[in-house]
Amino acid sequence: MNPGTAAVFATLESIGRELRRNEQYLCELDAAVGDGDHGVTIVRCWDALERRMNEVEGKSLADALAELGKAVVATGGGAIGPLLGTAFIEAGTAAGDASAPAHRIVLALRAAEEGVHSRGRAQVGDRTLLDALHPAAEAAGAAARAGHTVSEVVSAAAQAAEDGATGTAKMIARAGRAARMGEQALGHMDPGAVSVAIMLRAAADHLRNRAVAGDHES
Ligand code: ADP
Ligand code: MG
Question: Can you give the pLDDT at residue 217?
Answer without folding.
Answer: 52
